[in-house]
């Protein structure tokens, strides 16, 4: 039976010990690109992934290769006092973190926004990443309170699978 392209692309069958990493051409036909599953395999992330942030807990994060700036954490009522930023975040949790930078973000229509940047420890999948920079912004209108950007995705060598 001939599969449609969509059916074929969504077909996830590979041999035991192998995982699908897209499609490839073999003898003029598109076939699953099945690669051996090992410790060196790239981390595959879905578009939305739960992460653990020290001091906050588990939160949903949008994995966004289109964001070329810092990661973003929902933060309101930010107050900078010297080298410390105090803010309200997910679930109205109040926290403080060291100020590591500030950044100016072009949010569209010529509007710029200056944001404080803090470094936080996170756990993604089963790995802990320390001192990861996050700018603080009002993400109350977004579905996810955290946005993970392209620089971090690239640094950890991960790929995004939009079908997950």
Walkthrough of the structure:
This protein is mainly beta. The protein folds into two domains: 32 residues, no CATH class; 118 residues, Beta Barrel (Cathepsin D, subunit A, domain 1), CATH 2.40.70. Helices cover 7% and strands 59% of the residues. The protein contains two helices and 13 strands. The strands form three sheets. A six-stranded mixed barrel has the order 4-5-12-6-11-10. The model has no long low-confidence stretch (mean pLDDT 86).
Instruction: Describe the largest sheet.
Output: 6 strands, mixed, barrel
The gross shape turns out to be elongated
| Overall average residue pLDDT | 86
* Percentage of residues in strands: over 45%
Measured between the Cα atoms of the first and last residue, the distance is 26 Å
CATH class of the largest domain: Mainly Beta
| Spatial sequence of strands, sheet with the most strands | 4-5-12-6-11-10
State the CATH superfamily name of the largest domain: Acid Proteases
Count of runs of 4 or more consecutive helical residues: 2
Q: Any idea how many domains?
A: 2
* pLDDT < 50 runs, ≥5 residues: none
Radius of gyration over alpha carbons?
Answer: 19 Å
Structural class: mainly beta
Number of strands: 13
Q: What CATH architecture of the largest domain would you give? A: Beta Barrel
Q: SSE order in H/E notation? A: HEEEEEEEEEEEEHE
Task: Show the helix and strand layout.
Elements: H1 5-10, E1 18-26, E2 29-36, E3 43-45, E4 48-53, E5 57-64, E6 71-74, E7 76-81, E8 84-88, E9 94-108, E10 111-124, E11 127-137, E12 146-149, H2 150-155, E13 158-160
Parallel strand pairs: 3-13, 5-12, 6-11
Antiparallel strand pairs: 1-2, 4-5, 4-10, 6-12, 7-8, 8-9, 9-10, 10-11
């Amino acid at each position: 039976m001939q599969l449609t392209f969509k059916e074929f692309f969504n077909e996830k069958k590979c041999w035991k010990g192998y995982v699908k990493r897209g499609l490839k051409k073999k003898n003029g036909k598109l076939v699953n690109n099945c690669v051996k599953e090992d410790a060196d395999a790239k981390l595959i992330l879905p578009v939305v992934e739960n992460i653990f942030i020290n001091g906050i807990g588990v939160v949903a994060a949008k994995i966004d290769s289109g964001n070329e700036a810092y990661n973003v954490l929902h933060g309101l009522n930010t107050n900078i006092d010297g080298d410390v930023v105090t803010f309200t975040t997910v679930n109205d949790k109040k926290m403080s973190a060291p100020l590591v930078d500030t950044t100016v973000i072009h949010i569209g229509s010529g509007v710029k926004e200056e944001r404080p940047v803090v470094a936080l420890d996170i756990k993604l999948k089963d790995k802990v990443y320390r001192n990861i920079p996050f700018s603080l912004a009002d993400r109350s209108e977004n579905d996810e309170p955290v946005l993970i950007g392209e620089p971090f995705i690239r640094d950890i060598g991960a790929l995004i699978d939009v079908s997950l």
